[in-house]
Design goal:
The chain is mostly helical. Strands 1-2 form a two-stranded antiparallel ribbon. Helix 5 runs parallel beside helix 20 and helix 17 crosses helix 18. It is globular, with a radius of gyration of 22 Å. The N and C termini lie close together (11 Å). The relative contact order is 0.10. About 5% of the residues have low confidence.
Length: 485
């Protein structure tokens, strides 16, 4: 019980920090004189009050967190914060149900970008700012942001950081102190976001749209301020900017940090994922462009290449933007895009899916097993970037892939049993667990998830949370052994 109270004390601090985040859309609402200002006033009061009460009740139980506490805190933060994030939506849009509002905010904080809202162009600008800002702060993780602050309160953050951060960054400190690591990552994240904002403005967006789409591009979440998404501008220049920064956000931010710190491109050359990520996405762009041309979807290669490049990069990086309804393309193209979103992005990026490094390790393991069949006595180590990968890591990745596949199958069956056709059910689960956004069928890029009933919406919500926390971080909290002393 004491351990849980210590976790709740840190949670109270995170809630209070999150209350400060609501001042951002409030300030824009005030500056733009839109109709949503009261919604933010009330949301800040409720969130700050809840955080303050929880802090007062648990302040005597402050202590250093253990590894197990970090997993519990991460699970609580990623399920509790979206509930507070719903407040501006619920207050301003009283017709919106809590289920749909929670789906929307989970989609934002997990950088999924799936939406249940329509009529985005008519919403107060600050509502769209809040939605896109959720993706930005969720991109590197609300927890990582808090880690840079919690040491000042006497609470260490290394256990939290390890539980929340995906991939090999779990065991790698880029700077000696974890708080400095978090600050460094956020500095790089902020600088690239600022560059993205300026590039969008230069390409033709207005300042407000540039800011919102810079948020969602760097967070790799497909929220837009327009129902038509990027088709609203119909601009190759804007699409080119988006492609460039989506690719940047799809790579490991630890690599960006090291490149910035050393003022060198050598970290990219040594990254075992970056070159494979770029090669796979580039090859897919060209392949689908030729496929669309062969199927006479577009009249010439350059038009096919334009739409292929934007939509393939968007889905492969799990962003979820669109400039055309790719649901109408010949079926191979969108299915291949959903396949890419399952593994293409790099670990340590803001993307979703199982990550390129796990897919590469599984490919190496498959080759090793086939070699052993031919040469039973051969010693064939699995190596990555010249380093030997221990078997315990291989086994952990195998377990992750097993749980991932089992989760996809189970949730697809649940959605199919609830009445969805199999294409919609499967693509909705893939788009949710990989934090991609649009799927196919009823949840394609030209529609929203609003057509789903409450049960189906909750299945997709859980899938988004599982995907953002890479399954084990959330599932481990529900195991009996986690609660034993």
């Amino acid at each position: 019980m004491v351990r849980i109270l210590a976790v709740l004390h840190v949670l109270s601090v995170v809630i209070l920090i999150f209350a400060l985040c609501v001042f951002f859309p409030l300030a824009w609402s005030f500056l733009l004189h839109d109709a949503a200002q009261t919604a933010y006033d009330e949301a800040i009061l409720v969130t700050a009050f809840a955080g303050s009460v929880l802090w007062a009740l648990t302040r005597k139980h402050r202590r250093e967190l253990q590894a197990r506490d970090g997993f519990l805190l991460v699970a609580l933060v990623w399920t509790v914060l979206p509930a507070f994030a719903t407040l501006p939506l619920l207050i301003y849009l009283p017709e919106l149900s809590f289920t749909d509002a929670y789906f929307e905010t989970v989609s934002g904080l997990t950088t999924t970008g799936a939406t249940v809202l329509s009529g985005l162009d008519a919403l107060p600008p600050s509502i769209n700012i809040w939605r896109t800002f959720l993706i930005w702060i969720g991109g590197m993780g609300v927890i990582v942001l808090a880690v840079a602050i919690l040491p000042l309160l006497g609470v260490g953050g290394s256990q939290i950081y390890k539980a929340e951060t995906p991939g090999p960054m779990k065991d790698t400190k880029l700077t000696p102190r974890i708080a400095e690591t978090a600050k460094g990552l956020w500095l790089v994240y902020f600088m690239i976001t600022a560059a993205c904002l300026l590039a969008y403005r230069f390409a033709g967006m207005n300042w407000l749209d540039s800011m919102m789409h810079a948020f969602t591009t760097m967070g790799l979440g497909g929220f837009s301020s327009h129902d038509a998404s990027f088709a609203y501008w119909n601009s190759p220049a804007i699409e080119a900017v988006s492609i460039y920064f989506m690719l940047l956000a799809g790579m490991n931010f630890g690599t960006h940090f090291l490149a910035w710190q050393r003022l060198s491109f050598s970290p990219y050359a040594r990254d075992p994922e970056a070159w494979l990520f770029l090669l796979l996405v580039s090859g897919s762009v060209l392949g689908i462009a030729y496929y669309l041309l062969a199927n006479q979807t577009y009249p010439d290669f350059w038009t096919a290449l334009r739409f292929s490049a934007f939509n393939v990069v968007s889905i492969a990086t799990t962003t979820g933007y669109s400039n055309v309804d790719f649901n109408l393309w010949p079926i191979f193209a969108p299915v291949w895009m959903l396949f890419l979103c399952s593994f293409a992005t790099c670990s340590g990026s803001t993307g979703g899916g199982i990550k390129m490094i796990r897919a590469r390790l599984m490919a190496h393991q498959a080759v090793r097993e086939m070699t052993r069949i031919i040469h039973p006595r051969a010693v064939v180590p699995v190596k990555l970037a010249g380093a030997r990968i221990e078997n315990n890591i291989i086994f952990a990745v195998l377990a992750f892939i097993l749980v991932y596949n089992g989760t996809v199958i189970t949730m697809t069956m649940l959605l199919a049993a609830s009445g969805l056709d199999i294409v919609t059910a499967f693509s909705a689960v893939i788009a949710s667990i990989n934090n991609t956004g649009p799927g196919l069928g009823q949840v394609g890029p030209a529609t929203t998830f609003a057509s789903l009933n409450d049960f189906q919406t909750w299945v997709c919500t859980v899938a988004m949370l599982l995907g953002r926390l890479e399954l084990f971080t959330l599932l481990v909290v529900f195991t009996p052994g986690f609660w034993r002393k």
